[in-house]
Every structure is written in C-alpha cells, then in structure tokens.
Amino acid sequence: MWTYETTVKWSGGKKGRALCAGKPDIEISTPPEFGGPEGCWTPEDLLAASVAGCLMTSALFFIERDSIALSSCECRARAVMQKTPQGLAITGISVDVNISLQDPGQEPALRRALERAEASCPVSKSLNCPVELALQLGR
Amino acid sequence: MWTYETTVKWSGGKKGRALCAGKPDIEISTPPEFGGPEGCWTPEDLLAASVAGCLMTSALFFIERDSIALSSCECRARAVMQKTPQGLAITGISVDVNISLQDPGQEPALRRALERAEASCPVSKSLNCPVELALQLGR
C-alpha cells in the first residue's frame, strides 16, 4: 500500500497553495469561468495533468522494460466538464500521445507497450468517466 | 461545456514537465517507490491536489454565497494506492478539512456549505473510489 498526501491551504479569495513535502508549491484557484483569477492551475487542470502524467509514466515503464528507444514523447490530456442531471461533472478525458521513435521498426512494440500502459494506469482506472487514448507517431 | 487541457512533455528518464497555457510548469515524475527521482510531483500527488483543490474551491463557492467568514481553511487529501486483482489502483481518498471561523456561531452554516461542496465537487464525482471528508474546526 502506498499513500500520496497533498495539502491545499487557502490564501484568500478563490486561491490557495498546494503543498507536498519536499516539492515546489503550486498556486491553485477556482477556474476563471467560475470567478477565479487567471494564471493559476485549477483542480480540473491538475486532474488532466494527473491522467496525462500517469499514462506517460506507465508507458515509460513498459517502454524501458521492452528496450524501446524514444526520441520524444508528449501526452496531451483534455478533460471535458459538463452540466449533467447530477450537476457539474467531468464527463470524459481524451489523451493524445505523440511519440517519435529512434527506430521506426519498433512501432509494433510501442503499440503493445501503450496498450499495457492504458490498461495498468492507476489514475485513469480510478475514474468513472471514459479516458480515450490516441497515438500519433512523429517522424 | 468547459475543457481543461494539459500537456506532459517527457524530459528523459522517468521525468516530464506538465504545461498548461499561461501557468507555471510543474516538474513531474514516476513516484520514487517505482523508480522515479525524489522531489517531483507525481501523478498520484496531482490527483490528491486536484481532489483537495476541487473540494476547497467548491466549498469556497458556498461559503461566499452564504456569507460565512473564514479565518483559515486547509484541505489535506490522502490518496491510497493498492495492488488489486486489476493491478495497481487508487482505492480511496480521505480528505481532512481544517477550518477556523471568524464567528463560531456560523458552524451550522459551514457544515451545510461543506455538505453541498461535497455533493457538487466535479472532480470527486468523477472518481470511482470513495472520497471521505472529515471536518475539524480550529479555534
């Protein structure tokens, strides 16, 4: 069992600071469209970062294990929030993974590694909305 | 409908940078217990920050609407990750909310505001694991 602990400390208005031992603070706020200021990470941004980051680090595990050599890797997560009969909810997250391989012949191995990452990512597994992943291979 | 987009860019090894337009970058990594370096935010930390931040900003909405005057407010979220038959998964998040009121007589109003925040928080609503909230009143 592993635990991950973060504290958010209110700093007035619609802002706070996210603190995690030994790591730089993150200034957070209510999204601007709900009255918060511009320029701060919002809880919804952090959720998207968590999903993109977890898919990437899960993928890196299988990529390393299977000796796949990357030139670059980028994961863009887009979380959609909508009004539902139960109120505001995150209704889906789409993730575009953009990867360049050092050896294009490793594409089949990369696709297998990503499938495993998708199935094993603990963060997307903890969500009750669909998480859709699309791979784009760079040149 | 609102969308929240974040990109995580691999920076080598088990590290990356989370980028969100107009906001400071966050250095992220695989957790140290899975081979990542120390000192970076992990996807699991970001999930905890997202839940704590969303509960806090949801609470601040009702607190402002109901003219409740706070002295301080802190939300600590602890995400538990465990091995399950489906692999690693986040199995629960407990959130301790610590609030000091300017007027202790507003406690009943605060409790109602927190109940509403709990029911309306879009991030915790998107999770399939239990999110448990406990309120501690400071003096």
Describe this structure as you would to a colleague:
- Two copies of one chain form a homodimer.
- Chain A has 139 residues and is of the alpha+beta class.
- The model of chain A has no long low-confidence stretch (mean pLDDT 96).
- Chain A has a three-stranded antiparallel sheet with strand order 1-2-3, with no helix packed on it. A three-stranded mixed sheet of chain A has the order 4-5-6, covered by helices on one side.
- The first copy, chain A, has helices spanning 43-65, 107-120, 122-125; strands at residues 2-12, 15-19, 26-29, 70-84, 87-101, 131-137.
- In chain A, strand 2 and strand 3 form a beta hairpin.
- At the A-B interface, strand 1, strand 3, helix 1, strand 4 and strand 5 of A face strand 1, strand 3, helix 1, strand 4 and strand 5 of B.
